[in-house]
Write a structure and sequence with these properties.
This protein is α/β, with parallel strands linked by helices. The protein is built from twelve helices and ten strands.
Length: 301
Amino acid sequence: MKCRVCRGPAVIDLKRHNANFCHEHFVAHCEEQVRRAIHHFSMLAPGERVLVAVSGGKDSLAAWDILTRLGYPAEGLYLGLGIDAYSDDSLAAARAYAEPRGLTLHVVDLAETHGFTVPGAAAVTRRSPCGACGLAKRHEFNRVARDLGFAVVATGHNLDDEAAVLLGNTLRWETDYLARQHPALPAGRGFARKIKPLYRLGEREMAAYCVLEKIDYQVDECPMAAGNRHLGYKETLNELERRSPGSKAAFLFGFLDRMLPLLDPAAHAEAADVHPCTECGEPTTGDVCAFCRLRERAATA
Ligand code: Q46
Ligand code: ZN
Ligand code: ZN
């Protein structure tokens, strides 16, 4: 197996690209995919500061690493969700990445800052843990970005994640969600810009990147994820990909290039009639935002 670029020994084969790469040229390939993503969707201005939402997993650490390599001053934000040992190990992985590299990691703990945890909130509200978790992440990433003066938040969503979300939204024809499944949601009315610079890179590529670049990441999946629909969609797409390499990328990139522009561009912006939450000041369509309502219920339980 030879590297497509230098003909030296390859360390990875990428069937979708019909290519093998050595370590050096695989890293260059990952950089190039992120550069293309940033360029294609005007995600970042040259040298723009960016806050990376870091979970301690391979994707968010790789996103932070590649953005830094490409010259963007990137700081990390870790949100402690209170999911027992999983959260402790995730924070340890994020710290172990940031500290030796002299990178700034901001840490916010839901229990310390807001008096509740994701499992606690899920139990009180009888919502799925992932519902409460997603709400808390959206709120806190936006709030902290604003507090720290960042105009843009990057997340580690990769091609596999985005294709799985797309499949779920398509199966139910969730047109509002589809219109907002954009790799770069513009800022507006109190919302920071949100970008997904890894959307052109798959899960396997990100794991390989971390292993090759000696980035120790949290390997365990969140225990709350077991049985959620998202995992089922990923498995279905992996089966399709096995039979027909490239289907996942064709599905997602085709949607982004041909379908997304047809959906209402206004839907890219968060809801039009938003104003500051009376409790926390974050944008909301009601008086009190969903996060503050969740916090009140969870804290008084
Ligand atoms: S962390 Fe949170 Fe995920 Fe765990 S509770 Fe669900 S959403 S599965 S990315
Ligand atoms: Zn090479
Ligand atoms: Zn609020």
